[in-house]
Predict the structure.
Amino acid sequence: MGYKQVILVRTDLKLPKGKLGSQCAHASVEAALKSSRDVVDEWRSEGGKKVVLKAADLNELRKYEALARKEKLTTALITDAGHTTLEPGTVTCLGIGPDKEERIDRITGKLKIL
Amino acid sequence: MGYKQVILVRTDLKLPKGKLGSQCAHASVEAALKSSRDVVDEWRSEGGKKVVLKAADLNELRKYEALARKEKLTTALITDAGHTTLEPGTVTCLGIGPDKEERIDRITGKLKIL
């Protein structure tokens, strides 16, 4: 089984599309740059699979962050600078991986695709 | 003036939110990893500004890709693997930069935020 990265997005914020796109990009870049280059290269060579998942709210995001860190997965919790639609410092999403699909699915396998 | 990255998304595809998020993430990661590490580090230290912009269709995306490349900006044109909602090989979005805001605005300054 190959590598993937997942991005958990808070659905309670009802982010507008452009904001959703930029927050997912933040999570993906930060989690990738915190990962080992070997893993990132392998992941990209397979197509760099990324899946965006639904998290209900901040509590759920923090719960999955803790679970992922406990399993030594790379995580990147993203806080919006808040220049526009959101309050400054709003936590919007969480990037996990890239890592082996099975390791990630063990943590986030029950979450629904956004 | 600081650094930013822009992500142009085809509005004619009417991407569902999850797909939009993953395609923006692809564009952001690929354009960042094609850029020099010094520029990426500087950009991230300022907050890693990313702005998602509207492109009407494939022709417009290709036009901006050509304009950006002519100005020696880093570009990453993203093609979806098409396992789900899109036809395989559909070009979805374009990442440009990170680079100096003024250099990027010279190319994409007239595009609207998604």
Residues 53 and 92 of chain B are 12 Å apart (CA to CA).
